[in-house]
Amino acid sequence: MSLNDREIDRPLGQGTKGRGSRKLNLTLNSVLSTVVALVILGSSTAIALRERPFRHPAPVAVATVEPAENGTESDATSARTVEAGSSDAPAEAPSQPSGGPRILKVQPGDNPGQGAIVIRDPSALGQNLRVAHLPDRDLIEESDTGPLPVRAADGRRPFDVYARPWSGARGARVAIVLGGLAISQTGTQAAIEKLPAEITLAFSPQGNSIDRWMQAARRKGHEIVMQVPLEPYDYPNVDPGKNTLTTEASAQENVGKLNWALSRTTNYTGIMNFMGARFSADAEAMQPLFADLGKRGLLYLDDGSSARSVAPELALKNGVPFAAADATLDANRERGEIMKKLDELERTARAKGFAIGIGSAFGETVDAVSAWVSEARKRGMEIVPISALAIDPER
Prior knowledge:
This protein has helices at 3-9, 19-49, 73-80, 158-161, 185-194, 210-219, 251-262, 283-296, 311-318, 335-352, 363-378; strands spanning 60-63, 82-83, 102-107, 116-120, 140-142, 147-149, 173-181, 200-203, 224-230, 270-275, 299-302, 322-324, 327-328, 354-360, 382-383. It is of the alpha/beta class. The longest helix has 31 residues, at 19-49.
């Protein structure tokens, strides 16, 4: 066959000249295309798999709570998986058992299997509101008279753990404390049911079924304090009740009487005086009381009835969180007069930033306070628990 015949048999456009270079160019182009495709595929995969802040919420802390033995299974279950930041989660983190710094597992909401370990300051942890009626066993000291409040081994105080959360805003704030709970069964039930959760309730150690009423109040979200009877002038003609602390008693006797009152129930942030104009003016008599409160991590609320009270100075000296009332709301139990006192309390709060009112859980007081709180909120007033307005020497 001639050369021209071989040319006819070749595909159109191909010749013998430059054949090897064209094959090399085709091979390089194929490799380059493959590499580019792999790079694009890898980049797309990385982008698809990476975490995007605008797609995923911030990690939510999931912690566990060990409820007291008398808690129900439903209480324990609800406390076991509380997601901070969920719409129905309480504002507080669960309290943790004692024994040093707490380790919490932080889990992303979309992928619970991938979590990180963070260490939290235990003193910053309050009690989960879903189990607020259950005592924190790390804050209990057993005694002959019953369970006594005590600081936990990790430094947490009842004042911190049992405090009701609030916004922390700097606006005008009012705290209202109503006492005499557990004296009248029907009155106590009405107060717990009708009063807004922000109202602090004070329990009388002379009352009945205090543990039951404490749990009912805490389930409703109320912060609570214990009333302690102190010697008034003209004692015993004016008698605050059983185990009144007196100026004539020894320090040991008075601390024993105080501990009796403290052991009547638990889950409270501190105490407030019941009467006590004479006792509260005697620094020597008051010092053992404040030393015990400081050791236990409890607040002292002064009802403000005595200008001679030495409580502010002793609270600072002994590291006791302290608050003093600005007004008694129901010295006159007529509804209109109570409303006037509440309005005065609001004016005080707007003038100095906060105000504290105290009263008793009379039906008239409960109804007036409930109505006033509803209207005060609309005027931008924040109602806070008493712990929110206490001066705390440890902070």
